[in-house]
Every structure is written in C-alpha cells, then in structure tokens.
Design brief:
alpha/beta; seven-stranded parallel β-sheet; binds 2-amino-2-deoxy-6-O-phosphono-alpha-D-glucopyranose
C-alpha cells in the first residue's frame, strides 16, 4: 500500500488521469465506482475529459460499491441517482453497462449474485474508494469480517450522523445498506482511495500506524498488492512527520 500526500486538486488530477489511462489502454475495462463527496472532483474531471474527446466510456462497464436499503433509484439520496447525476448523465456511457446494487428487495442471498456478476464481467480493473470517518470503506463498518462478500449491513450511528447532512433529518437516513464486502473490494486489480479533510485524519493515522484489523475496515488495503491512498494535508495532519 502506497500513501501519497498531496493537495486536493493534485489528488483529483492524478486519480482522474489514472482512470483516463486505464480506459484508453483497455476501452472495455471494468471500473469500480464510489459515491460520497471524495470522488466528486475526479468525476468532474472525467466528464470534462469525455466532452473534450480525451476518453470514451462507450465500452466501459461499471459496478458501484453500495446502496441504501429501501431507497428506489429515483430517490434523490439513492446512490443510483447520485451516479446518474454526477457522472453517467454527462458521459458517453451506455447506462445498461452501469450497475449499482439495488436497495429494494435485497437479501444476503441475492446480494451474493453481485459478486458473481462482477466476476462474470472479468473483475474490476480499477476501483475508487472514499473512507468513512470511522475507517469504513463502501459500507463495511468496523467489525465486518475481512473475508466478507456483498451483503446487507446495519449502518453505524456515526455513519448515519455523517451522512445526515444529505437528508432533511437523521431520521430519514436509512438504517441499512447493501455493500460490496471487504473481500469483494480486495479482488480489484488496482485500488485508489481518496481521503480529504480533517474528519478523516484519525482514521488515516490508525491506518498508517496500525495493523490489519476488522475494527478498522480500511486497513485490509495493506494486504493489497496495488493500492494507493491519496491523502490531503488536512487528512494527513495527525501523521508523525
Ligand atoms: C459513505 C459511502 C462511502 C464513502 C463515505 C465517505 O458512507 N458509503 O463509500 O466513502 O460515505 O463519504 P465522503 O466521501 O462524503 O466523506
């Protein structure tokens, strides 16, 4: 696992360029995508690059990490809506090639199909991740087994509080989500994680200074052969210099 400490703009540029290179080298590549504010700068740069004909998503397939249970894809806080609104509606991708796990009628049994679909497509070439303030990745909360596949999760109170800013009140934040598991994520050939802002500093310190443990889900990335963690100066502020 490599750590790169850069300013936010540079992080967005480097990660967007990595996506563009990956797609240009393999036009039918499989991308693993994330929601949240962390990847937004990258998505904006990808939209720009597509409009300038520097990259085409025509043959690309995408799989998203997670979705809230109970939210229909048209709900403005669903992750399907987020992806359409922030990326898919503005690039030349075929929406049939974009997958976000369904938040409706999902069981642990049907959730496993998601891993099979990814495998059938050839596996994820490049996965982008954010990080929760408690060290979660996707919606794998502390305590999630390192060998977990796609499953239904109960959201931590701290995660619901963090994400309440997007809803009218915390009561509206779903209590459950469907999420790719830690083992599902680890199958990606290459992983990049973006951690920006002071709220991520504690988790980044624990990641850099601690061992691999299910109490800090992000730490599993230490076992990945090609994972890069992009940290801005605020998120790196608690690291020993
Ligand atoms: C949610 C998502 C995660 C994301 C995290 C951080 O919990 N399920 O995939 O990494 O939020 O969000 P943000 O990037 O807005 O800080």
């Amino acid at each position: 696992m490599e750590i790169k400490i850069l300013d936010t703009q540079k992080i967005d540029e480097e990660v967007a360029n990595l996506f563009i290179e990956t797609i240009n080298n393999k036009p039918n590549c499989i991308l693993g995508l994330a929601t949240g504010s962390s990847p937004l700068g990258v998505y904006a740069l990808l939209v720009k690059a597509c409009k300038e004909n520097k990259v085409s998503f025509k043959q690309v397939k995408t799989f998203n990490l997670d979705e809230y249970v109970g939210l229909d894809g048209n709900h403005n806080q669903s992750y399907r809506y987020f992806m359409n609104h922030n990326l898919f509606d503005h690039i030349d991708i075929d929406k049939n090639n974009t997958r976000v796990p369904s938040g409706l009628n999902m069981t642990n049994e049907t959730a496993k199909q998601y891993d099979k679909e990814i495998e059938k497509a050839g596996g994820i070439d490049l996965q982008i991740l954010g990080i929760g303030s408690n060290g979660h990745i996707a919606f794998n909360e502390p305590g999630t087994p390192l060998d977990s596949l796609t499953h239904i999760v109960t959201l931590d109170e701290s995660t619901r509080k963090d994400n309440a800013r997007f809803f009218n009140s915390i009561d509206e934040v779903p209590t459950h989500a469907v999420s790719m598991g830690l083992a599902s994520i680890m199958k990606a050939k290459k992983i990049v994680l973006i951690a920006t802002g002071p709220k991520k500093a504690k988790a980044i310190k624990a990641l850099v200074e601690g061992d691999v443990t299910s109490s800090l889900p992000v730490s599993v990335l230490k076992n990945h052969p090609d994972a890069t963690i992009y940290v801005d100066f605020e998120a790196a502020s608690l690291l020993n210099k």
